[in-house]
């Protein structure tokens, strides 16, 4: 007998009235349970009490979401012997307490595991054709790597890691996606247990926070190199000897805002090796350039002369407080001119008097994500760039930059301007320690818990500051350092087939673009110009997505059959689309892949695509749109 969910809508797992047997599943051991309804209606079942009673079989049906969120220290809160998530179903686990998912869970829908260090899967394998999302979670370890089913997609987000076993034999699954990384830039990583593997599984979304780690090996890797495959993807070759033995990832695609970097091999504290800096792009480093003067109790001292143990002046509630330097880090940057200025790696120059009289006292050079302390809050300097008093200095294509960390995250003075010290949020491994005194890495911190002041990026807060600095630039008589750009509202919307055939719209009707689809075409890409709100509205808008067009309803007419397409609204792994929004529309990134339903033989189809918004577009972004097309192959 199966104990089935009765409530046609959402409800509490631990309410007996919601179950067909009149008992909650944990009222008896080894129960078989079905969550969902025969109509496949959308519902959410909340699991908010701890129970270690093991279920025999758990099936999450289409349209159902089971949300496990209870925490009970080190006690097991959820335990199942056999788990199946049907297509369209979802299981969300968001707890730090132990959870057991049995052997060979089958995920044809979506399994999301958030921040859980205590997930137990006896078989060390996950099967199915759906999506496994690891959000700040590590799956496996050096001694217990995992095998992913050949049709499973794994998404790594916010510092997640997955240990893969014998990837040459297909154990890495259908696809591995480097998804969203955290605001602190904590790296997500794929960990391989040994050498001599050729991984053909596509790895997408690779960016500056993506890391490849080798957990074991008799010798250190000697090189890591990206080689173009000629179709917008790359092979990453990690060699362990001069004969080419090692690990090869044959199908790596970079994220839309990233490009090939210079892979660097670092040795980790546990003796493993990681390949870092494999991509350039959104530079999250919060740093000063050489020559910056940091205020100390004995006066100003240039940052490259600071050492661990030196004291500097910090500010707490507006009053000076002396703190010791606990770490100094340095790194080298080579800018990538093919990327937008805020992501290319160029430093930002804040000219003398830009913020006020004598503030800064001399030009200040910092990285784009570094924050200035303004109106009692931290604001990233990239959001204040006006091209006059604050601008990207392209005279620095290569430079060294420095971190200075105090005991607590602090407000400090640099060239007379209030700014921030380093906050150790998980990217320390990418820096070399500066000086001769060895210092072990401290704990990982976060903006929400450990920052000296709030980090504010909302337009309502930043735009008035931006406008105030613009007026000050007028008063200083400063001219623009960049040329104005031409805008257009024309998205140049068209479709592209996998073999490169361009399809133009034949008409527009009711806000929808209508395209004629030739027989035999099973998928198309929605191609358009792109723009970023931070470019077309202003840098005070913290939205740097490359937006193509906002797509609403899509219908496909094939002979006498009408299909309403919905996958693009929910599938986070579908290439060429920005983040999933409210379920009714979604932005492309200029190259949105669109699989079509099964076709009638020899039939000509009609595709109707509702366009809700788009543009304006910068005409100088044509190269950016071309880059997106190239990266999608």
UniProtKB/TrEMBL annotation:
Stretches assigned to the Hedgehog/Intein (Hint) domain: 287-424
Pfam families: Hint_2
Domain of life: Bacteria
Protein name: Hedgehog/Intein (Hint) domain-containing protein
The organism of origin for this protein: Gluconobacter morbifer G707
């Amino acid at each position: 007998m199966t104990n089935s969910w009765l409530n046609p809508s959402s409800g509490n797992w631990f309410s007996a009235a919601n179950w067909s047997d009149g008992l909650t599943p944990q009222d008896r051991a080894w129960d078989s349970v079905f969550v969902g309804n025969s109509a496949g209606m959308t519902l959410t079942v909340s699991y908010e009490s701890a129970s270690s009673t093991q279920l025999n079989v758990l099936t999450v049906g289409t349209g159902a979401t089971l949300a496990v969120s209870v925490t009970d220290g080190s006690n097991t809160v959820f335990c199942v012997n056999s788990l199946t998530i049907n297509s369209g179903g979802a299981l969300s686990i968001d707890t730090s307490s132990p959870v057991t998912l049995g052997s060979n869970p089958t995920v044809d829908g979506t399994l999301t595991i958030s921040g859980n260090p205590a997930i137990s899967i006896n078989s060390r394998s996950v099967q199915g054709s759906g999506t496994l999302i690891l959000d700040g979670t590590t799956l496996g370890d050096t001694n217990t790597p995992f095998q992913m089913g050949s049709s499973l997609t794994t998404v790594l987000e916010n510092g997640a890691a997955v240990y893969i076993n014998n990837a040459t034999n297909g154990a890495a699954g259908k696809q591995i996606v480097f998804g969203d990384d955290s605001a602190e830039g904590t790296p997500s990583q794929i960990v391989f247990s040994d050498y001599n593997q050729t991984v053909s599984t596509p790895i997408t979304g690779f960016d500056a926070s993506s890391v490849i780690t080798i957990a074991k090996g008799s010798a250190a890797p000697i090189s890591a190199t990206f080689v173009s495959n000629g179709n917008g993807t790359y092979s990453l070759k990690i060699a362990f000897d001069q004969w080419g033995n090692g690990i090869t990832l044959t199908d790596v695609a970079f994220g839309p805002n990233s490009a090939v970097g210079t892979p660097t091999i670092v040795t980790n504290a546990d003796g493993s090796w990681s390949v870092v800096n494999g991509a350039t792009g959104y530079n999250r480093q919060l740093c000063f350039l050489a020559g910056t003067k940091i205020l100390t109790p004995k006066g100003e001292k240039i940052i490259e002369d600071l050492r661990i143990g030196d004291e500097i002046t910090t500010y707490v509630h507006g009053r000076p407080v002396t703190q010791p330097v606990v770490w100094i880090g340095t790194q080298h940057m080579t800018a990538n001119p093919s990327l937008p200025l805020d992501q290319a790696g160029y430093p930002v120059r804040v000219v003398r008097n830009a913020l006020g009289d004598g503030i800064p006292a001399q030009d200040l050079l910092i990285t784009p994500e570094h924050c200035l302390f303004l109106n009692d809050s931290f604001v990233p300097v990239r959001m204040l760039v006006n091209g006059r008093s604050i601008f990207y200095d392209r005279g620095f294509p290569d430079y060294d930059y420095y971190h200075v960390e105090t005991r607590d995250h602090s407000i400090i003075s640099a060239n007379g301007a209030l700014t921030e010290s380093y906050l150790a949020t998980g990217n320390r491994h990418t820096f070399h320690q500066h000086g001769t005194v060895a210092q072990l890495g401290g704990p990982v911190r976060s903006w929400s818990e450990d920052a000296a002041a709030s980090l504010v990026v909302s337009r309502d807060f930043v735009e008035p500051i931006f406008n105030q600095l613009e007026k000050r630039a007028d008063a200083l008589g400063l001219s623009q350092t960049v040329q104005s750009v031409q805008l257009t509202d024309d998205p140049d919307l068209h479709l592209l087939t996998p073999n490169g055939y361009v399809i133009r719209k034949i008409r527009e009707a009711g806000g929808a673009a209508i395209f004629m689809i030739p027989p035999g075409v099973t998928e198309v890409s929605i191609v358009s110009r792109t723009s970023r709100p931070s470019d077309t509205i202003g840098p005070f808008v913290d939205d740097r997505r490359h937006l193509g067009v906002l797509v609403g309803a899509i219908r496909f007419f094939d002979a006498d059959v009408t299909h309403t397409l919905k996958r693009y609204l929910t599938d986070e792994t579908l290439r060429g689309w920005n983040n999933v929004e409210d379920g009714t529309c979604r932005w492309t990134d200029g190259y949105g892949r669109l699989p079509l339903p099964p076709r009638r033989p020899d039939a000509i189809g009609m595709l109707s695509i509702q366009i809700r918004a788009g543009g304006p577009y910068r005409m100088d972004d044509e190269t950016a749109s071309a880059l997106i097309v190239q990266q999608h192959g």
